[in-house]
Sequence to fold (219 residues):
Amino acid sequence: MSDTGNDTGLSDAPSVTEDFRAAGLSRARAAIADDRGPAALAPTGGQTIGPFFAFGLQYPKMHEVVFPHTPGAIVVGGTVYDGAGAPIPDACVEIWGADSDGTISRERGSRRRDDHTFTGFGRAFTTDEGRYEFWTRNPGAEPGKAPFFAVVVFARGLPNKLHTRIYLPEDAAALAADPLLSELSDAERATLVATRTPEGYLRHDIRLQGEKETVFLAF
Fold:
């Protein structure tokens, strides 16, 4: 047996891990003492979606902005399609809208539903058929303005979320005067305006690419 310098059979020389830690501590102390200020941080890429994505996002009643079947409650739903026209089974859709009188909610409770507080926010994952669905209310708006839901879409292959809107279809004059819609062609405008069903609900499909691609907004 070689001479190890002690009677335990172990070397007294520091391990690679100890050297690494010592060097890291030295660099950290130097950074703290450096008076050049904090280094600029490079932006990182956005998060795409996948089978793991539901962790930390899913919670009970997240698609119930209002309690189902209560007075004024409607269903807002549709299908999310990819560029080839196939439904996307693992997309995530978020909506936010004003209350029916146009009031912007400042209430808490989007993640802890109490079945009566209106927060305006909801989140839904698509089904295997690509369908999303929310229970909510028709949003109101200021006089002369078109009511709409703000929408965020997460889906496979997207390096970041997409922003869009869902407009109510009834007030033609308000839709024509809307600053965003007035800048779009008729075909583009149609991708942002929902269809009212005989039950009073709203149907609105979202197409990420291809024919009839939904208009998305850049912020």
